[in-house]
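Two entries, shown back to back:
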Amino acid sequence: MYIVTRERELARARALSGALAIADLAGWQIDRSVPILPMPFRNYLHIATAELLLVPSIEPSRGDLDTVERGTRIARCDALVVKASSEGNNTLYCAVGEWQRHGTLWHHARRLWLSSRNEAWLVPDPDEPEESDAVFRLTGSRLRPMVPARLPATGAGAGAGAGAGAGAGAGRNFASGLARGDAYIAAVWSQR
C-alpha cells in the first residue's frame, strides 16, 4: 500500500501528461468505448487504431511490467509504458511491449526523439547501451520496431560525430533529437 504524498501525486500527473503528449504527437485517439478493464488495469488508456495500451506509470523501472504484460494478454494488444523523470529533469522513459501469442517482447529504455520537422520517434536511451537498437515511429498506426537507419536526418550537423559503426543510432546524432523531445515535454509540463 502506498501513502499518498504530494511527490507521488506530482509524479503521477507528470506520467499521465507525458503519455497524453505522446498520444498527441502520434495522432492517437483514446478509445473510451472499450469495456472497463479489470483491476489493476483501469488506469490503462486504450488506443484501438494502434492496438495499444498506453500506460502512465510511476512504479520502479521494470517492476510493474509483469502486470502490464498480463494486461496485454487480456486486451490482446501492445503496450507503451510511460514513466516521467524525477522533478528537475524533463525526460520521459518508455518501454514498448509487443504482444505476441506466447508472451510479450519488451524494448526498454526508450526516449522521445523529435526530428527538426517534429517527426516523433521512440529511440534507445544512449545511456543504456545493452538495450536493442530498435526505434519506433509514432504514427497513427501500430508501433513496429525499425532499424535506426530509418530515422530522418536531424538537420544541420546531423552527421557530425556520427559514424557507420554498430549500436543505437549508428550513423545518426541522437543528441539534438533527444534535446528537442525533452524540450517538448518541458513545455507540456510547464503548461500545467
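entry 2 starts here
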Amino acid sequence: MQEITIYDIEDNTLTNLVQWDSDVKIFVKEDGIDAAYKVHFFNCKSVDAMVMESTYANGVLSTVIPNDLLRDSHPITGYIYVEKDNEHKSVYCFRIVIRKRPKPANYIYTDQTEYITFDKVLKEAQKYANDSRDYSVKAKESETNAAISANTASQKANEAINSANAAKVSETASKESEDNAAASKDAAKASEDNAAQSAKDADASKIAAKESQNAAAISEQNAKASETASKASEDNAAKSAQDARESKESAKVSEDEATKSAIAAKESQDAAKISEDNAATSEQNASDKANEASTSANTASQKANEASNSATLSKSWAEGDTGVREDEATNNAKFHSEQSKNSSELSKAYLEKVEQAGNEAVDKIQNALDISAPNFIVDLSTGHLMYSGERFAFLVNKAGHLEWGLIV
C-alpha cells in the first residue's frame, strides 16, 4: 500500500480540513494512476466505506469528499481502488485530519449525490433491467428475421434444384430431338437418292420402250415390203410380223415398267419430302428444347444466387459480419443476446447493491435512533429553543415551521 499526497483545487498540498466543510474536491497526481478509478472514504465510525466516482484528465484524478464524513471531527482515510489487468485492489491511500469546530448556524444539509446512494443504485438497476428487456426483444426480432431469411434461402435452393433438374430434362430432350433430326435428314437423303434412281430407271424404260416401238414399226414396214415384193418371202414376212408383234408386246411391257418406275419415283419423291419436313420439325424441336434447357439453366443459376443471398442475409441477422446491412454489427441476434445478457447481469448486480444499500440505510437509521436522541432546552435569556444531538438536524423553513432530519 502506497501513501500518497493529495491536492486541493488551488494545487496546494491537502492534509487538513475543518469540520462542517462541504463539497471539497481533491486531486491526485500519480504516475500509476491512469484512469478514473473509484475512491473509498471512511473514518473510525464508518461501518462501510463510501464509494465515490472520479474523473480523470491530463494525468490528474479528481473526486469529492463525502459531506457526511466532513460533519464529523474524525480523520478521514481514502483508498484509491485500482481495477486493472484483471485485478481489483486498493493500491494508494491518503489521510486528512479534520479539525473540530461547532456546527455553523447557517449550515444547510445537502444530499451528497456524487457517491453511490440507494436512489442512484436503484435507478441504475432499473435502467439495466429495462435495457435487458429491450435487448431481449431486439434479439427475438433478429432471430425471427434470421429464421425468415433461412426459410427463404431453403426455398430458393429448392427452386434452384428444380430448375437445374428441368434444365437437365430439357437438355436430354434437346439431344433426342437433335438425334431424330439427324436420322430424318439421313432418311430424307436416302429417299431423295431412291427417287432420283427411280426417275433414271423410268427414263431408261421409256427410252427402251420407244426403241422397241420403233423397231416394231420398222419390222412391220419390212414385212409389208417383203409381202408385195415376193411370195417366196411370205414366210419371212410372217416371221417378221411375228417378230413385230413380239417387239410390240415387249414395248408394251417396257412402257408398263416405265410407268411403274415413274410411280415409284413419285412415291420416293413424296417420301423424301415427308422426311425432309420431319427433319425440319425435329431440328426446330431440338432448337426449342435447347432454348428451354438454356432458360432452365439460367433460372437455376438465378435461384441459386437468390438462395445464396438469402443465406447471407440470414447470417447477417443472426450474427452480422457479412457487410450486406449498414447496422448489422449492432443489430443482430447474437449482439442483442449478448447485450441482454450483460444488462441482465448488471441489473442483478445493481439489485444486490440496492438490497445492500437499503439494509445499510435501515441499519444507520436504527443506530441513530439507538445512539442519540435530541435534547431540547429553552434559553431563557434569549427565548431561543436550543437542542443537542449530532444525529438530528433542525431547520425553520420560510413558513416558520420547524423541520427536522436524520443524519445517516
